[in-house]
Amino acid sequence: MINGKCHAVIWDVDGTLVDTAELHFQAWASVARELSRPFTRADFAATFGRRNPEIIQQLFGTDYSAQQVADLGDLKEELYRGAARQGVSLLPGVQALLEGLHAAGFAQAVGSSAPRRNLDLILGLTDTQRFFSAVVSMEDTQCGKPDPQVFLVAAQRLGVAPACCVVLEDAVAGVQAARAGGMKCVAVRFVAHHPDAKLIEAGANLVVNTLEEVTAEAVQQLFEKGGR
User: Fold this and answer.
1) DSSP per-residue codes, the chain
2) By the 8 A CB rule, do 62 and 82 touch?
3) Hey, what CATH class is 4-19+89-224 in?
């Protein structure tokens, strides 16, 4: 049996802990309208989970100054937070898994491309702050997923080696980031942003429909199986 006290679970937020994808889409759509730029569901899917500066560059081009990029990102996040305050719920299985991992002694952290204010809002609305010993946000990184930086910073703050971490993700870029960081990864496809085949191709050790299928024991078994 793996000793949970020596291992950690790092949670992505959007699409894993909660489903706020539509709120993000509508916020980006509003920004695009203000800029008179096109914005489609395909554009959204191609950039979901990445940091705002990277998203803005990909969607709207490179002609904006650093300050303009920051202002556009701030506008988008204000729109998102305003919508999120109307109510956000945990995805199926999340509450039970948070509690089960805590009881088993696993350290837990958030590793997200979102701004810290967004994360604080979501964790507050869902009353889940108490489960996380570290929260790593956009402000703590210079590189977005699929770069592993966000997860490596989370592991460092928890004091746990990357090889002793499992990442919970829903996006291909997030799975790639976890694996690039030398971590195990469970991919959850409840929000259906990516098909199973793409998540497996990205390196997911386990793909589940919802986190109702995952327990602390299942996380332990990922280490007991060994290998990458």
Assistant:
1) ---GGG-EEEE--BTTTB--HHHHHHHHHHHHHHTT----HHHHHHHTTS-HHHHHHHHH-S-S-HHHHHHHHHHHHHHHHHHHTT---BPTTHHHHHHHHHHHT-EEEEE-SS-HHHHHHHHHHTT-GGG-SEEE-GGG-SS-TTSSHHHHHHHHHHT--GGGEEEEE-SHHHHHHHHHTT-EEEEE-TT-SS-HHHHHHHT-SEEESSGGG--HHHHHHHHHT---
2) no
3) alpha beta
Tokens of 76: 């988008």
Angstrom distance (rounded) from CA 152 to CA 158:
10
Amino acid identity at 23: L
Query: Was domain 21-84 assigned CATH 1.10.150?
Result: yes
Which tokens sit at 81?
A: 């937070």
pLDDT of residue 35: 93
Q: Can you give the residue ranges of every domain in the chain?
A: 4-19+89-224, 21-84
Mind listing the pLDDT tens digit for each residue in 175-215? 999 999 999 999 999 876 677 889 999 999 999 999 999 99
More reliable by pLDDT, 2 or 40: 40
| Cβ(42)–Cβ(28) below 8 Å | no
d(CA 42, CA 32): 14
